[in-house]
Design goal:
The chain has 212 residues and is α/β, with parallel strands linked by helices. Helices cover 52% and strands 13% of the residues. It has nine helices and five strands. Helix 1 (20-33) crosses helix 8, helix 2 (48-55) runs antiparallel to helix 3 and helix 4 crosses helix 7 (158-170). It is globular, with a radius of gyration of 17 Å. Bound molecules: thymidine-5'-diphosphate.
Length: 212
Amino acid sequence: MKGPSKGLLIVFEGIDGTGKSTQLALLAEELSKRGYPVVTTREPTSGRYGQEIRKLYLDRTSCSPAEELRLFIEDRRQHVREVLAPALANGKIVLCDRYFLSTVAYQGANGFAVEEILAQNSFAPEPDLALLFQAPLAVGISRITGERGDILNDFEKAETLARVAEIFNSLTHPSIRKIDAAGPMAVVQENVLSVVLPLLTTCGGQCLPEPV
Ligand code: TYD
């Protein structure tokens, strides 16, 4: 769905541990500094379906793949209705940590066809830009277990992530821009800005929220 939105939807996608959440926070800070009205948000949300999803981190097998897919779709439906659509209608630049391409890649790796997942997401506004963070799997996994000191949740096992990365790689949506996320944080941030800033200036009056 592409509505007559006034704002701009920028989504951050990629396998776990690519640093996308850190880059989202850095971009939000930079755009706010420049006077743009920014809203940051993420999926899974902290809403009722998002909470159900988080319970699965410990044991993904406690739910069928179809039920898992349903939870992500319902979480997004609520997110679009309550957060994304109102913010876009208000002319905000919305930075969203994960969106429907994550469903395509993760639930795709769990057995569903890409087309089927996209069809189930037809209610969700198309992002203006999907930043796809790419780093070797080993880098992602060591960032999760090393720097973050976390254990891998049930969505982050190496075999699964390899398949997820493969699907992310194969996607050809026009909104996708690949970001090399293997390097130092400051370099990755430069890459992100080099993609985002031209979008703000070329968007003209149509969808560019005016700096305040
Ligand atoms: P993550 O970005 O790690 O969220 P948080 O840091 O808030 O816990 O996302 C959690 C996991 O959910 C991640 O491993 C990817 C998975 N996921 C899907 O499988 N499908 C989806 O549609 C989304 C949005 C996330």
